[in-house]
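Quick one, T. Sequence first:
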Amino acid sequence: MATLNFWNNAKKNPWSVVGLLLVLALVVWWFVVESQGMRQGTTSYEYCNSLCRVYETVGKTFCLAVYLMMTYLTYINKQYSRWTIWLFYVVAVGMLVYYVGAGYVLDYVYNHIGADYMSLLPSLARSLFGGPVFLIILSFFFVPKFLKDTMKLKKEQELTV
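Structure tokens:
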């Protein structure tokens, strides 16, 4: 039954499916490029820089995926769901996990970067800890709108019942 509902939604919104496939292809390409950078790094700095970029890509992809799910549930599906509200908490927990993991990655980089490149460590830390900051700041502007629209959908759904 759920697969039938998915295919019906896909038939109704073909441009959404095409957009989703393009985003998925871009993310996969991004991971492949960064992973190749780790594999082909000739110095310890190139390896550690690529490692930080891969981890940053993971954080950005997670935030973007959750925000796209919230957008789908609120604006495309246009039906109230508790998942929309729970996804806000998922983003908060995910960001905490990201920053704890970023600390571990930075410790790993500090132990493996080498003495010649130690002066470049602050730039790696900035890129590692500042990666998903843009998406977090953006969420401060859009989360209230998501919540307002979700509550509006809830009231409309209660009125129709």
